[in-house]
Amino acid sequence: MNSKSVEFLVGLFLAAGIVAAVILALKVAGLTLSSGSNEYYTVHAKFSNIGSLKVRSPVKLGGVVIGQVSKIYIDTQNLQPVVDMKIDKKYDKIGEDSTFSILTAGLLGEQYLGVKPDFASMDDDGNPIYLKDGSVTTMTDSAIVLEELLGKFLYSLNSGNKTE
Q: For site-directed labelling of 8, which of 24, 93, 95, 149 has its Cα 20 to 30 A away?
């Protein structure tokens, strides 16, 4: 009888480990088990370079996740990358002049969108103008590409070593 209870506990422990591994895998992949809120609005941001930003990357304001990247595509008129973001409706007071930057987090180089709020644009009554569903912004800072930085650094070293 004692061995059956030990076997049951081992099976229970193994099942808990499998559930924890699945939750961890979903968390790392940026997915969740909950249905979540469908209350969001979409903002389109035009960048010159998006680096390795991916769909489902977080959108953060002050380190707090306020949304996620929903789509990445090329604007065929001016051949510019466009990033669509779903932002939670409870964060509907983001100024129209806010800057969206592609930033890197952690040692593995996960990229995310950071929002720096700005409320420079005012309507006729002096109230700030906020982003709304379907807004398009060009107030963006593109991703820093390590290869480009390294190339510029090496070029500056090389040009400084030339003797005439």
A: 24
- DSSP-derived pairing of the beta strands 64-75 and 99-105: unpaired
pLDDT tens digit sequence for 66-125: 999 999 999 999 899 999 999 999 988 888 888 999 888 876 678 889 999 888 778 888
Q: What is the pTM of this model?
A: 0.67
pLDDT digits (tens, 9 = 90+) for 17-63: 999 998 888 777 665 545 555 689 999 999 988 888 899 889 999 88
- Residues listed for the chain: 164
3-class SS letters over the chain: CHHHHHHHHHHHHHHHHHHHHHHHHHHHHCCCCCCCCCCEEEEEEECCCCCCCCCCCEEEECCEEEEEEEEEEEECCCCEEEEEEEEEHHHCCCECCCEEEEEEECCCCEEEEEEECCCCCECCCCCECECCCCEEECCEECCCCHHHHHHHHHHHHHHHCCCC
